[in-house]
């Protein structure tokens, strides 16, 4: 039997670099139709260190960007973990752009 209800964390950061947007959403499938509700959402502001790293990323070497990619992934993972603990959430999966 296919599951028809999902609890999801969505994550994104836009070009404004104001912060990491995190949303807890619920998706439900009824027949062929999907519906969703955004239950909780917040922007986690970047501190000066992260803003500087992200702004200057375009001028970095391939190796430096690869290292930054890993570091940023760890940062996002920690923020998602904090978000789920803060709101006592049980989720099915995380989606990131």
Share of β-strand residues: 35-45%
- Strand arrangement, largest sheet? 3-2-1-4
The secondary-structure element order is EEEHHE
Count the domains.
1
- Rounded to the nearest angstrom, the distance between the terminal CA atoms is 29 Å
CATH superfamily: ATPase, nucleotide binding domain
**Sheet with the most strands, sense and barrel status:** 4 strands, mixed
Shape: elongated
Quick check: average pLDDT? 95
CATH class: Alpha Beta
Describe the model.
- With 97 residues, this protein is α+β, with helices and mostly antiparallel strands.
- The protein has a single domain (5-96), classed as Nucleotidyltransferase, domain 5.
- 34% of the residues lie in helices and 38% in strands.
- The chain has two helices and four strands; from the N terminus they run E-E-E-H-H-E.
- It has helices spanning 48-55, 62-86; strands at residues 5-12, 19-30, 33-45, 93-96.
- A four-stranded mixed β-sheet has the order 3-2-1-4.
- It starts with a strand and ends with a strand.
- The mean pLDDT is 95.
Could you list some keywords that capture this structure?
2 helices; four-stranded mixed beta sheet; Nucleotidyltransferase, domain 5; alpha+beta; 4 strands; 97 residues; 34% helix
List the helices and strands and how they pair.
Elements: E1 5-12, E2 19-30, E3 33-45, H1 48-55, H2 62-86, E4 93-96
Parallel strand pairs: 1-4
Antiparallel strand pairs: 1-2, 2-3
